[in-house]
Amino acid sequence: METPYPKPINPNQTRIGWIGIGVMGQAMAARLISAGYSLTVYARTPQKAFSLQQKGAIIVNSPSDVANKSDIVFTMVGHPSDVKSVVLGDNGVLSGLTKGGVLIDTTSSDPVLAKEIASKAQSKGCFAIDSPVSGGDIGARDGKLAILAGGDSDVVKWLAPVYEVLGRVTYVGESGCGQSCKIANQITVGANLLGLSEGLVFAERAGLDMNRFVESIRGGAAGSMVMELFGKRMIERDFRAGGFATYMVKDLGMGVNGGEGKDAVVLPGAALSKQLFSSMVANGDGNMGTQGLITVIERINGKSV
Fold it and tell me: Where does the pLDDT of residue 73 fall: very low under 50, low under 70, confident under 90, or very high at 90 and above?
């Protein structure tokens, strides 16, 4: 399959649409505006789009309107049900995307849904790439996201200029593979967050200075990007969300519950992580950042948080 346009992407000519302006989406969209791209934005709560509007974004009334005014449409919403509604609904992206248009879904979503969207996009002469991201709010702000792209490889190559504004893209395979890669990423991140949480709780109970503890182990086998991103936040009780705990429950659930028959995988660590993040949600902390997992370990150990 050829790339959708004979002309390369150019900030002065390529029109970009954006749907979903939460913590991550807001920062990603702002970076594209700063890079010179014109953005058309849809937000269910229009007030949330005000800061982007001040930067020059045009606000419209539906996902279909966004698609009709765009060559490339990004989505960054919450759950697979939101993706389905925004993309496949009566006023969804595919109802307004013109032939040759490209949808890029950066939501952490369902691989099966990603394949369905790609198939329906192809049937109307369009393209759909599932490319969820990892790196949290800091990565989104600084343009250092890890971007996991599934779909047509030629289209992913053509999209390189916009991806470069947001971070580093890795092509991981056919449609759905981006979402599968993100689920595997979240399984790994969840395990790292749990290990770091338990290490910090143990270190504090042992009377160690937690900052010194982190500094002493960060260069060894225990060091990780999770520690770099969240270690200081955990110690300083900064639980502001880059990625919500409730979304981690969703992502881990897709891993734990995904696959049937020969495709089924037993994931005891992911199941435990999901249970602990679910405890955060039950405690009323679902909108905390994922680094708030330490509060669950603290509660288990009798600490009032």
Answer: very high
182 is catalytic: yes
The alpha carbon of residue 229 and the mean position of all alpha carbons in its chain are separated, in whole angstroms, by 16
Stretch 174-180: mean pLDDT: 97
**Of 106, 252, 243, nearest in space to 187 by CA:** 252
217-263 residue pLDDT tens:
999 999 999 999 999 999 999 999 888 999 999 999 999 987 656 67
Active-site option among 182, 250, 262, 274: 182
162 CB-near residues (< 8 Å, 6+ apart) = 9, 14, 16, 32, 37, 72
- Cβ-based neighbours of 265, under 8 Å, separated by 6 or more: 255, 258, 259
Dihedral of CA atoms 187, 23, 11, 147 in degrees, nearest 10, equals -10
Q: Which of 80, 93, 85, 155 is nearest to 124 (CA)?
A: 93
